[in-house]
Specification:
Helix content: 25-40%
Strand content: 15-25%
CATH architecture of the largest domain: 3-Layer(aba) Sandwich
Order of helices and strands: EHEEEHEHEHEHEEH
CATH class of the largest domain: Alpha Beta
Strand order of the largest sheet: 2-1-6-5-7
Distance between the termini: 35 Å
Structural class: alpha/beta
Number of strands: 9
Radius of gyration: 22 Å
CATH topology of the largest domain: Alpha/beta knot
Largest sheet: 5 strands, parallel
CATH superfamily of the largest domain: SPOUT methyltransferase, trefoil knot domain
Bound molecules: adenine
Shape: elongated
Length: about 240
């Protein structure tokens, strides 16, 4: 997969993709990540990337021209109806649909090329969404100063699902959310620490019992802190 990130703060990403699974996936050429400064695509002599909102109001709005030029440069198209089927142009914004594990899995499976546009909290000219953006995503119901942290979250969640990115192919299947539940508790050595004992079942090597215990604990944890995950779309318990 190829990922292009468009931002007015490229330095934000200097080290964020240089650790752990993402770094390994880059080295193994499972993913290529390029970060671009939106300012490089500014069309006027002052390299302006934002301007005051029509109609008045606080803050600045990202201008359309640099973003249209950037998308045209990166994808060869400046209208989403001309995009390749495996291209997704994502705008990170609190106004987007909620990003979750299913969305990460869908992008990892369907997209070969992703362009992530980091918005500013004041906004992005709506014509960018109208003509260029295939998906508006929010990472949660809170307002960040910009889309940069959100873009790094989306990249991380997606890249670890690309084939070969994790050491063991089964690890992602056992993640929280992949079966609709949170993950069960995990323990490592020592078996007793400051009077706290690791549950006996995990020490006896009986795999069927361990699986049963883990499923039970995952369900109980989910019920306690995220009962919404156990509800169907009509609000009924599944
Ligand atoms: N930009 C600002 N807040 C955001 C959020 N919650 N999700 C994605 N992008 C954002």
């Amino acid at each position: 997969m190829k990922i292009d990130v468009l931002t007015i703060f490229p330095e934000y990403f200097d080290s964020i993709f240089e650790f752990g699974i993402i770094r390994r996936a880059k080295l193994a050429e499972i993913v290529e990540i390029n970060v671009h400064d939106i300012r490089e695509f500014a069309t006027d002599k002052h390299k302006m990337v934002d301007d005051r909102p029509f109609g008045g109001g606080d803050g600045m709005v990202l201008k359309p021209e640099p973003l249209f030029a950037a998308i045209e440069h990166l994808t060869g198209a400046s209208d989403r109806k001309d995009y390749r089927e495996d291209l997704r142009v994502v705008l990170l914004t609190p106004q987007g649909r909620q990003f979750n594990q299913q969305a990460a899995a869908d992008f990892a499976a369907e997209a070969e090329h992703m362009v992530l546009i980091c918005g500013r909290y004041e906004g992005v000219d709506e014509r960018v969404s109208e003509r260029l953006v295939t998906d508006e995503l929010s990472i949660g119901d809170y307002v960040l100063s910009g889309g940069e942290p959100a873009a790094s979250v989306v990249v991380d969640a997606m890249v670890r699902l690309l084939p070969g990115a994790l050491g063991s192919e089964t690890s992602a299947e056992n993640d929280s959310f992949s079966d609709g539940l949170l993950d069960c508790p995990q323990y490592t050595r020592p078996a007793e620490f400051r009077g706290m004992k690791v549950p006996e079942v995990l020490l006896n090597g009986h795999h069927a019992e361990i699986d049963k215990w883990r499923r039970k604990m995952a369900f109980e944890k989910t019920k306690k802190v995220r009962e919404d995950l156990l509800m169907g779309e009509n609000g009924e318990r599944e």
